[in-house]
TrEMBL record:
It comes from Polychaeton citri CBS 116435. This is Elongation factor G, mitochondrial. SUPFAM superfamilies: EF-G C-terminal domain-like, P-loop containing nucleoside triphosphate hydrolases, Ribosomal protein S5 domain 2-like, Translation proteins. Catalyzes the GTP-dependent ribosomal translocation step during translation elongation. During this step, the ribosome changes from the pre-translocational (PRE) to the post-translocational (POST) state as the newly formed A-site-bound peptidyl-tRNA and P-site-bound deacylated tRNA move to the P and E sites, respectively. Catalyzes the coordinated movement of the two tRNA molecules, the mRNA and conformational changes in the ribosome. Mitochondrial GTPase that catalyzes the GTP-dependent ribosomal translocation step during translation elongation. During this step, the ribosome changes from the pre-translocational (PRE) to the post-translocational (POST) state as the newly formed A-site-bound peptidyl-tRNA and P-site-bound deacylated tRNA move to the P and E sites, respectively. Catalyzes the coordinated movement of the two tRNA molecules, the mRNA and conformational changes in the ribosome. The lineage of its organism: Eukaryota, Fungi, Dikarya, Ascomycota, Pezizomycotina. GO terms for biological process: mitochondrial translational elongation. GTP binds at residues 101-108, 182-186, 236-239. It holds the Pfam family EFG_III. Pathway: Protein biosynthesis; polypeptide chain elongation. Residues 92-383 form the Tr-type G domain.
């Protein structure tokens, strides 16, 4: 809806009045509708009464106090406005950002330039560069060899930005401190993106100027939405043949559905790409010198003036749709000033209503500096993002954390890494200060921990510091904890929500080639599990084999390789196995008696009830997919026929049964069990008997309830040159894939399809053969669906045969 229509419909909101200077920026930056990190709720505006009370007591401790008693009482705006001015000045120049994008978009290449232009590295080294050094942020040997990012890497740098004084207009230099995390693009390492976005305040979403929005861009977009992360978009690779930034801008608007507009236009394109025109100030920016380090400004080239004006109008129109001040200017038929446009971009970006688009070519050393300026101009400082913890001392009531160093410390351990000096724990400090030698509490375990060493990370190098203030990111040594643990000072009792961890979809059996390597093998497995929550290990109860599970073939193969390199352990692995699931389709009653009363202490337990598909499994989502819900156990006993402690054992029996389904031994999904009657024996009943009786009843009822094997379907996106479209579609048809979208560009086409994971083993080599090595594909878990009947029969027969063989032994 355009601004005029909005005004007519009465949907325009009133915004806070703006005045000049710093204060104006502070007031208007954070809108009252800023999203809350926890539960994705929005916080209501404070009541007039509370606002008055607040104004009367404006110290940070009282902000905290008010937030503790009534977390909805204060807007983030009120908190920002009342921060101590010195603290605000420090925070205002801090940016915690991540770089996330589709595979090979140039995240690491762009980060290398950021480090060079900010003086963090002396020279630029390329990903897969001829000098063999590799980019700073790809510090692992494997990353440098493969030219891909496997682990996210953190670094920090200072960027000196020229800002016009809001009052005098004179140019002054401001130093911004940027904590930056470069994340991997491959979906197999998606947990690295999840945990980075969980703790960052803003992100740079990179897009390829030729391909625009790609499959992983959509995944990254989903992750940014999950954690309410504001973003700017950088269209990279403007030097490539076929570069077209407008395709990327359209893709963001139409595919990601975020209002987006370019704030620059390119000067030239492909190998003629020379710089950009800043549409806000209508100035040309050129990055010159041998490595683009000399930024020169000039007038907008005459031949681009009309086009720049047209795109500037489009920028203002797009902003008018998401920002009331610009909408008002639009209604008054007044052209907003450059400062008004900048303020509006900042407000709406932080309010998650808009993303400004900048462009350049990292590899050609073009226009990375203006991207850094945009990070400072449009991404939030740590005090502007609302972060909540749950207060365990107040019935898990949400409590707002305040980015203020004088308050008690609250931090989140978001990533663990083994280093030569022991376990390194990355911590985001949300509130208070973290000091060397300080004792903090682990909110999960209740353990006291002393912080022996604090460092700031610069990829694999580190710099020791004595303390870290609120809103910053650091790493600490010698702290035993799990990924996602909250640390607090004293007995605050706060804990923060952790990140989303996707379920593994693929597994394989693994064992060391030589028995002498078993201790090292166990060490490696323990470490990898601690560091990566998507890498799981269990011992198959029936075969006794160790099974590793993860997000894809690449994910598991990287761990196998790391065992060899870092732990000198050669391993034998089985064929990759799909993580099937088992479920039921109908409701079945059961009445099961476990009775062994032949002399001595006996076993007696009777359970009566029913099993059925869970309520969540029944409805279908709009695309027609069945969403299989979590398993559910319930007791509806009246009259005490089964004692409470035995019911607890029944629940345990149910949960254990769900771990190894009766058909294949894979996990059960979407199954509910209700026990509503039973019987107990005075002497022979026990928890053990009830647990076993439940497990036996489960097995019988499951088999009777039309059980089904579910297989993971993967959203697969393939891009290849147009001449191979027939071959690729043929490959997909052979795999009974369901094609959901096809897009044909000038040179390349992209097909999106749901394919069964089982049918995708070995796909990469077949795609290579079918496209002369020019095709690329990505695969991401989509949902579970019933496996074809023939496959179900084969899998069940195989599982039965294996069981029979094991029983013979
Ligand atoms: N033509 C061109 N190539 C680029 C540009 N930026 C990066 N590349 C190339 O694209 C490839 C991938 O670059 P990376 O920086 O590793 O991309 P990435 O997004 O970090 O990759 P992953 O983390 O593995 O997903 C490398 O060969 C780069 O040299 C650019 O601006 N122009």
């Amino acid at each position: 809806m355009r601004a005029s229509a909005l005004a007519r419909s009465g949907l325009l909101r009133v915004v806070l009045p703006r005045s000049n200077g710093e204060l104006a920026a502070r007031r208007t930056i954070v809108s009252t509708s800023l999203p809350v990190r926890l539960n994705h709720q929005r916080i209501a505006a404070p009541s007039v009464h509370l606002q008055r009370r607040w104004q009367a007591t404006s110290t940070a401790a009282k902000v905290q106090e008010a937030a503790v008693h009534d977390p909805n009482a204060l807007t983030q705006q009120a908190i920002v406005d009342n921060l101590d001015p010195v603290e605000f000045a420090r925070l205002d120049k801090v940016r915690n950002i991540g770089i996330a994008a589709h595979i090979d978009s140039g995240k690491t290449t762009a980060t290398e330039r950021v480090l060079f232009y900010t003086g963090r590295v002396k020279d630029i080294h390329e990903v897969r560069g001829r000098d063999g050094v590799g980019a700073k942020m790809d510090s692992m040997d494997l990353e440098r060899e493969k030219g891909i990012t496997i682990q996210s890497a953190a670094t920090f740098c200072d960027w000196i930005k020229k800002n016009p004084d809001p009052v005098t207009g004179e140019m002054k230099e401001d130093k911004y401190h940027i904590n930056l995390i470069d994340t991997p693009g491959h979906i197999d390492f998606t947990i690295e993106v999840e945990r980075a976005l969980r703790v960052l305040d803003g992100a740079v979403m990179i897009l390829c100027a030729v391909s625009g929005v790609q499959s992983q861009t959509i995944t990254v977009d989903r992750q940014m939405r999950r954690y309410n992360v504001p973003r700017i978009s950088f269209v990279n690779k403007m030097d490539r043949a076929g570069a077209n930034p407008w395709k990327a801008v359209d893709g963001i608007n139409n595919k990601l559905r975020i209002p987006a507009a370019a704030i620059q236009i390119p000067i030239g394109a492909e190998d003629e790409f020379k710089g950009v025109v800043d549409l806000i100030r209508m100035k040309a920016i050129y990055c010159e010198g041998t490595k683009g380090e000399v930024v020169r400004e000039d007038d907008c080239p005459a031949d681009l003036r009309d086009f720049a004006q047209e795109k500037r109008r489009l920028l203002i129109e797009t902003l008018a749709d998401v920002d009331e001040e610009i909408a008002n200017a639009f209604l008054d038929e007044r052209t907003p000033s450059p400062q008004e446009i900048k303020d509006a971009i900042r407000r709406s970006t932080i309010g998650l209503k808009f993303t400004p688009v900048v462009m350049g070519s990292a590899l050609a050393d073009q226009c990375v500096q203006p991207m850094l300026d945009a990070v400072c101009d449009y991404l939030p400082n740590p005090s502007q993002i609302e972060n909540l913890a749950l207060d365990r001392k107040r019935a898990e009531a949400p409590v707002k954390l305040v980015s203020y160093s004088d308050l008690p410390f609250v931090g989140l351990a978001f990533k663990l890494e083994e280093s030569n000096f022991g376990q390194l724990t990355y911590v985001r400090v949300y509130q208070g200060k973290l000091r060397k030698g300080q004792t903090v509490y682990n909110a999960r375990s209740g353990q006291k921990v002393k912080i022996p060493r604090i460092v700031r990370m610069h990829s694999d190098d580190m710099e020791e510091v004595q303390e870290i203030g609120a809103g910053e990111i650091c790493a600490v040594f010698g702290v035993d904890c799990a990924s996602g643990d909250t640390f607090t000072e004293g007995g605050l009792g706060y804990s923060m929500s952790s990140m989303f961890v996707p379920d593994p979809v693929i597994s394989l059996s693994i064992k060391p080639k030589m028995t002498k390597d078993t201790p090292n093998f166990s060490k490696a497995i323990a470490r990898f599990q601690r560091e990566d929550p998507t890498f799981r290990v269990h011992v198959d109860t029936e075969s006794g084999e160790s099974i590793i599970s993860g997000m894809g073939e690449l994910h598991l193969s990287i761990y196998v390789e790391r065992m060899k390199r870092e732990y000198k352990v050669e391993v034998i692995t089985g064929q990759p196995q799909v993580a099937y699931r088992e479920t039921i389709q109908s409701k079945v009653q059961f009445d099961h008696l476990l009775k062994k009363q032949t002399g001595g202490a006996g076993d007696y337990a009777r359970v009566i009830g029913w099993m059925e598909p869970t309520a969540q499994s029944a409805p279908t989502d709009p695309s027609g997919k069945v969403v299989y819900g979590d398993n559910h156990f319930e007791q509806q006993i009246t009259g005490g026929t089964i004692d409470e402690k035995y019911l607890f054992a029944c629940d345990k029996g149910f949960q254990a049964s769900c771990q190894t389904g009766p058909l294949l031994g894979h996990r059960v999904l979407g199954t509910s069990m209700v026990i509503n009657d039973g019987a107990t024996h005075m002497t022979d009943s026990s928890e053990h008997a009830f647990k076993n009786a439940t497990m036996q009843a489960f097995r019988k009822a499951f088999i009777a309830a039309q059980p089904q094997v579910l297989e993971p379907l993967m959203k697969t996106t393939i891009t290849a040159p147009n001449e191979f479209q027939g071959n690729v579609v043929g490959l997909l048809n052979k795999r009974s894939a369901v094609i959901s979208d096809t897009e044909t560009g000038a040179e390349d086409f992209t097909v999106t399809a749901d394919c069964s994971l089982n049918a995708m083993f070995g796909f990469s080599s077949q795609l290579r053969a079918a496209t002369q090595g020019k095709g690329e594909f990505t695969m991401e878990f989509s949902h579970y669906a019933p496996a074809p009947m023939q496959l179900q029969k084969e899998l069940i027969a195989k599982a039965e045969k294996e069981r029979a063989e094991r029983n013979k032994k």
